[in-house]
Structure formats: C-alpha cells, structure tokens
Amino acid sequence: QVQLVESGGGSVQAGDSLRLSCAVSGIGRMFEFYAVAWYRQPEGKQRELVASITNNGRIRYTEDVKGRSTISRDNAKKTVTLQMNSLKVEDSAVYYCNVAVNVNYTYWGQGTQVTVAL
Q: How large is the greatest C-alpha to C-alpha distance in the chain, in angstroms?
C-alpha cells in the first residue's frame, strides 16, 4: 500500500520560512522513475501546483513561489521536500504531496496546513 505522509506545516508570520517534507512508502524502487510535486489548496479555492520535479530532475515552479521556494527529492530515502522562504499571507493553504505514476494515475498525501499571518 502506497502512503505519502506530509509534515512540516504550521502557523508562522509573514517573512518566515517553512520546510515541508513528504515521506513515501510502499512504492519500492519505482519511486525514482516517477515525477513528484507539491500542490496547495487555499480555503475555498481549487488545488494548484506549487512545484514539481521529474524523474530526471527537471523542476518547475508556479510563478507565485518562484525565487522563494526550492523543491528537492531524495530517491534513496523516498522523500520530497519543499523549502519555502519569505512566506506571504497568500501562501496559506493545505499543502499536498503528489507522486505521478503517469498522467492518469497519481498518489496523494493527506495534506499539511500552512497558515501565514501578518
């Protein structure tokens, strides 16, 4: 059974940093062949892509977080990390880890809440 467990969320002040982590289990050695990503869903809004990294290391960020965030993966440990700096109130959301086996088959974590206050 594949499980994605996010951690590292919390309540912070604007300008602070957070490091979100996602531990993936039950996926075996195939993890390194899959793209991974972080999404977020602000309250009352749709889920949106924050950052992604392919199996060969190609990285993409949504414009909102570009320059303030870094996504990374550790294939040996089967973890995905999102370092977020200079947090803004509008970064408040539930953040979800995603592993994409293919365009039609993905795994999701349960989410971790990030709340940024002025």
A: 43
DSSP state of 27: -
- Confirm if 76 and 11 have CB atoms less than 8 A apart: no
CA distances from 72 to 3, 27, 35, 57, 110 (A): 19, 18, 11, 9, 19
User: How many C-alpha atoms does 30 have within 13 Å on its Cβ side?
Assistant: 9
Check if the beta carbon of residue 95 is closer than 8 Å to that of residue 4.
Answer: no
Q: Are 51 and 98 in contact (CB under 8 A)?
A: no
**Which residues lie below 8 Å from residue 104, measured CB to CB, with a gap of 6+?**
none
Pairing mode, if any, of strands 10-13 and 112-117? parallel
Report mean pLDDT in 10-residue bins for the chain, 118 residues. Answer: 96 98 94 97 97 96 97 97 98 98 92 97
